[in-house]
Amino acid sequence: MDILQTDFDAIVIGAGPIGLACGIELKKAKVSYAIIDKGCLVNSLYNYPNNMTFFSTSEKLEIGDVPFVCNSPKPTRPEALEYYRRVCTSWRLNVKLYEVVTSVKKDKVFQITTSKSTYTSNAVILALGFYDLPYLLNVPGEDLPKVKHYYHEPHPYFAQKVVVVGAANSAVDVALETWRKGAQVTMVIRENAIRESVKYWVLPDIENRIKEGSIKALFNSTINEISPLGIKIKTPEGIIEQENDFVLAMTGYQPPFEFMKKTGITFHDDQYHTPVYDEQSMESNVKNLYLAGVVCGGLKTNKWFIENSRVHAEMIVGDLVKKVIEPI
To answer: What single string gives the DSSP state of each residue in 79-112?
Structure first.
């Protein structure tokens, strides 16, 4: 195809680990690029709980041939933040942080409008995460300050009556950690049990705390209403009310589907709302618009991780160079 004059040959939206990996491959291919993110570097990782430990070992989180050295086989959040800062510095990546992308439109080339500027590009790579759009409870009182969809550390909940919503890893970790730091914890769980997918070394812990009564669990239950001083919970026995200081809704997060639709991306008619893309090149149904990382899984946000989607960067740039980029 004819290469048109643009600000960049490719723009990557998302400065998470996979977005950085795409930037590295673009730089290795000697093409012009920029990585744009609405937040800080690896913004999703930054918003993880302060004491979080990754499931993956450090070598599975490496990108750009930069060694990830840490104190234990499974790195912590602070170690990961340090590592990806070092990757960005080592490769001297062109990152534009705290710059919100408001639209991506395509005519002959892509026009990317942000909160700070407008850029043109021959190709766009969407390396979007899913940590910015929590699933809402959709109940009265959810907008109260006591309701949190993100959790950072247990200290603020000392000596507080806390309801934790959810039955997966995040909810279990929050329930155990806040309880151990002095909170009175009740779990509200829609299912009839803690999920079997919970980390195998944590599952017996939460089950034993529930069995002994240290942590109260209401199964087959949902929140009905939240007020400044209390909460109403729908249980199999009927509506119960209890005093409450905080609601920690660990209900999961979803990809930015509306933003993706506005770019022209279409989706499969399946339960996971999976975007349409070529599995060999990662190109979406929109020519020269690529998908990378967790966003490829739609609602199945546990399908793609850093360790198994790092390869998307090489796949995308390999295809993109052949079709779009004129090396400089």
So the answer is: HHHHHHHHHHHHHT--EE-S--EEEEEESSSEEE
Q: Name, in order, each residue with C-beta under 8 angstroms of 17's C-beta and a sequence gap of 6 or more.
A: 42, 45, 61, 63, 84, 293, 306, 310
What average pLDDT does this structure show over 34-42?
97
- The label of the residue with tokens 């080592």 reads 90
- 278-305 residues labelled b (16+ CB within 10 A) or e (exposed): eeebbbbebebbbbbbbbbbbbebeebb
Task: Please state which of the four CATH numbers 3.50.50.60, 1.10.10.10, 3.90.1150.10, 3.10.25.10 is assigned to the domain occupying 147-249.
Answer: 3.50.50.60
CATH 3.50.50.60 segments of the chain:
8-133+253-323, 147-249
Helix 17-28 / helix 77-91 crossing angle, nearest 10 deg = 20
pLDDT of residue 324: 67
Among the residue ranges 25-39, 44-58, 95-109, 183-197, the one predicted with the least confidence is: 44-58
Query: How close are the terminal C-alpha atoms of the chain, in Å?
Result: 16
Beta bridge partner(s), residue 163: 186, 247
What is the value of pTM for the model shown? 0.88
How far apart are the C-alpha atoms of 4 and 325, rounded to whole Å?
Answer: 10
d(C-alpha 183, C-alpha 170), whole Å: 17
CATH of 8-133+253-323, one of 3.55.10.10, 3.10.20.440, 3.50.50.60, 3.40.50.300: 3.50.50.60
φ/ψ of residue 161, rounded to 5: -90, 110
Beta strand 147-148 with 161-165: parallel, antiparallel or unpaired?
Answer: unpaired
- The span from the CA of 227 to the CA of 50, in Å, is 28
